[in-house]
Design brief:
Layout: H1 20-25, H2 31-37, H3 54-58, H4 64-73, H5 83-92, H6 96-117, H7 123-142, H8 154-158, H9 172-195, H10 199-217, H11 233-248, H12 252-272, H13 283-286, H14 290-303, H15 313-324, E1 326-328, E2 331-332, H16 348-358, H17 361-370, H18 381-389, E3 414-417, E4 422-426, E5 435-440, E6 443-444, E7 456-460, E8 463-466, E9 497-499, E10 507-511, E11 513-516, E12 524-528, E13 541-548, E14 553-561, E15 578-584, E16 587-590, E17 595-599, E18 611-617, E19 622-629, H19 633-639, E20 642-649, E21 657-667
Antiparallel strand pairs: 1-2, 3-4, 4-5, 5-7, 6-10, 7-8, 9-15, 11-12, 12-13, 13-14, 14-21, 15-20, 16-17, 17-18, 18-21, 19-20
Helix pairs in contact: 2-12, 4-6, 6-7, 6-9, 7-9, 7-10, 9-10, 9-11, 10-11, 11-12, 11-14, 15-17, 16-17
């Protein structure tokens, strides 16, 4: 065994690293140089007006689903979010009633824009689609708030449950709307001037009032990251404002000033990214964080004719992150708030373009394998237009992964990201075949945090069976003081220990200490977990997670030396029990000889396949099984009807000091 190395929990210090955009672009990122570079920017963008010949080529793209849905909804009433839907968030915590209708409205408008831009043989048909666009755009202008109710400060500030039009709130929702209107204006502006004179002026007035002025006049937006806490809102909103400023702000000075501030914001985000490119919010949030930054940087480079060159060292590690988190098929390691299965409509083509540009062959092959040939309107108008109009380099690799899951598309042995203390190790290097072990340290102050320090995930042939539940449907409770009342966020429902029956604590201080880092030859991550539970010393609980390729096993070894009573005594919420928990998907069967099997039966999208056999020592541990019947639609869509908590309660003689080992191996036995 390699000599242990002890390191504390690592986090990226946001303000201590050089700002990559400031260092790379200097004075070109603001002032007269930027104003000059932005002249004529519309003509340099990849997205082109409908009159451009690029749309003849786009018409050959696979658009069957989009065309069919657009044709079905054309002429029907538009989705109508009402004040009662908006108010529900403040009344009962439901946020999907309002956000779902807003999303449906915007997705319909995206489809209408594509249909209006495609070449049409008859003028009447083109005008009908253009009217559809005009109606959808005007509805957004009339919508009292572009902010999602869950983000608006109207209730906390004034006690109101209706939007305040005099004080627009600039959030993710507002950014999405303004970017959609901006791209719409670029593609169909000439036709709008002919068909609906005055509409483009209305788009600009609303943009100025709801987005540009609030952005420039206020520095108290939490997502700016001025306090050093930089998260995915930063690049998501800044990149959308870049599109709005380029396409809906006509004053050159105001345009350049807005974009210069966006560059400052993106610079703070990139400065916060650790050298290994890890995103503590996980794979799912990469697309609406790092992915948004990549999109914004690409647009800036196009708009300035290459003066703001986005080929920066800070970008390279970001591009590698998604495929490093891959388990197999559409399954990815889902730390924090995120589903374990990749969503449809992700812009893999965008990631592929970046990977090709940077010469990252592994990332390029992986992205190509996932890129869909069919355009998905749920991705948003900007992403749809770039997918249709950007030169494709995907070739014959596109969409292969679903049917060829064992191709050489993955990092050879796996990966280790020290900034977040995440290991992903593969039994068969470069493929999903056999066992894959993911283990996580980190701390409980991460963005979208779950109390998951020390958790493990085990997949067989790419399908996770020892799992992390992931993200349930968001409500008011999700980001409020009662967040950890939600089962999916609790350490009690993650694959972690429970010394004295304790929940892990919340905050950066409740962290793991790395005792041994993995290597390609020895994929072993050993962590001191005492700090996550507020114990006196990290090594009062040591968890070692290792993959033995020769034997074809995963071993989770826990060793502890606990004080006589929990911190603060029994009155603090602890018990006399020492439990070790594993969360299981599929069907669990307990044997009579300290063994159990887990088969993938009941997991949606999984048709048969191998399971895992579990063996544990000491055999005298008491086995407790709790079924979690899933009524949340997001969790049920990923895992099926239930998840199962398998708990091992330690014998009385080992509660103060002891060891427990779980061995996992693949099996075909039912």
């Amino acid at each position: 065994m390699a000599k242990p190395t002890v390191t504390a929990a690592v986090e990226a210090p946001p303000q201590s690293r050089a700002h990559p955009l400031r260092a790379g672009w200097g004075s070109n990122a603001s002032g007269p140089a930027l104003t000059s570079a932005l002249q004529g920017s519309r003509d340099r963008l990849t997205v082109r007006p409908a009159s451009d010949g690029a749309w003849q080529r786009a018409a050959a793209s696979p658009l069957g689903q989009l065309i069919a849905q657009a044709a079905e909804e054309k002429g029907s009433p538009w989705p109508q979010p009402l004040v009662s839907h908006y108010a529900r968030y403040f009344r009962d915590g439901n946020r999907t009633a309002y956000e779902g209708l807003v999303a449906a409205r915007q997705q319909r408008l995206t489809r209408a824009v594509v249909m209006a831009a495609l070449p049409h043989g008859a003028d009447g048909e083109a005008d009908a689609w253009l009217d559809e666009v005009i109606d959808g755009a005007y509805l957004l202008c009339e919508q009292s708030s572009w902010s999602w109710a869950a983000h608006d400060d109207v209730f906390t500030r004034a006690g109101d449950v209706v939007p305040d039009r005099t004080r627009p709130y600039l959030d993710l929702g507002a950014g999405e709307v303004v970017a959609q209107l901006a791209w719409l204006d670029l593609v169909l502006g000439e036709q709008l001037d002919e068909r609906a004179p005055g509409l483009r002026r209305r788009l600009r007035d609303e943009t100025q009032h709801r987005v540009i002025r609030p952005f420039l006049d206020r520095l108290d937006w939490h997502w700016l990251g001025l306090d050093g806490d930089v998260h995915n809102w930063n690049p998501w909103i800044h990149s959308n404002i870049i599109a709005a400023a380029l396409l809906l702000v006509d004053d050159p000075g105001l345009q350049a000033r807005t974009i210069a501030r966006c560059i400052e914001g993106l610079d703070r985000f990139l400065a916060s990214i650790p050298a290994d490119g890890a995103i503590d919010e996980g794979f799912a949030y990469w697309w609406n964080g790092a992915g948004r930054a990549l999109e914004g940087l690409a647009v800036l480079e196009q708009a300035t004719g290459g003066m703001l060159d986005a080929d920066l060292p800070a970008i390279r590690a970001l591009v590698a992150f998604p495929h490093r988190m891959h388990l197999g098929h559409r399954w990815f390691l889902n730390v924090a708030d995120g589903p374990a299965r990749a969503a449809e409509g992700l812009p893999w083509d965008m990631l592929h373009r970046w990977a090709v540009r940077l010469g990252d062959a592994e990332a390029a092959r992986h992205a190509a394998a996932f890129a869909s040939a069919e355009t998905d309107s749920t991705a948003g108008l900007g992403r749809v237009l770039h997918s249709l109009l950007s030169p494709s380099q995907l070739g014959s690799n596109s969409g292969r992964f679903e049917g060829s899951e064992r191709q050489q598309l993955l990092p050879s042995w796996g990966t280790y990201l020290p900034s977040v203390q995440i290991m992903v190790a593969r039994q068969t290097p470069g493929t999903t075949e056999g066992l894959t072990l993911a283990a996580k340290g980190g701390h409980n102050g991460e963005h979208h945090n779950h109390r998951d320090v020390g958790s493990v995930v085990v997949a067989v042939d790419g399908v996770p069976l020892l799992v992390d539940a992931g993200q349930p449907t968001y409500t008011a409770k999700t980001f409020g003081p009662d967040r950890y009342d939600i089962r999916a966020m609790q350490s009690a429902w993650h694959s972690v220990p429970a010394p004295f029956g304790l929940e892990q604590g919340t905050g950066k201080g409740f962290a793991a200490t790395v005792i041994q880092e993995p290597t390609p030859e020895e994929p072993t991550l050993a962590l001191g977990l005492g700090g996550a539970y507020g114990l006196g010393h990290a090594e009062q609980w040591i968890r070692t997670a290792l993959l033995n390729r020769e034997l074809g096993t995963v071993v989770i070894d826990d060793r502890w030396n606990l004080p006589s009573s929990p911190p603060g005594g029994i009155a603090s919420g602890g018990t006399d029990d020492v439990d070790i928990t594993f969360l299981v998907a599929g069907t669990l069967s307990i044997g009579n000889d300290a063994t159990a099997t887990v088969m993938p039966d009941g997991i949606p999208t999984v048709d048969g396949g191998k399971g895992v056999r579990l063996r544990w020592k000491p055999a005298t541990a008491v086995v407790l099984v709790d079924e979690w019947h899933l009524d949340d639609p997001l969790l049920r869509d990923v895992w099926g009807q239930k998840l199962t908590r398998l708990r091992f309660r330690m014998p009385a003689e080992t509660r103060a000091s002891g060891a427990f080992t779980l061995t996992v191996e693949a099996t075909n036995e039912f």
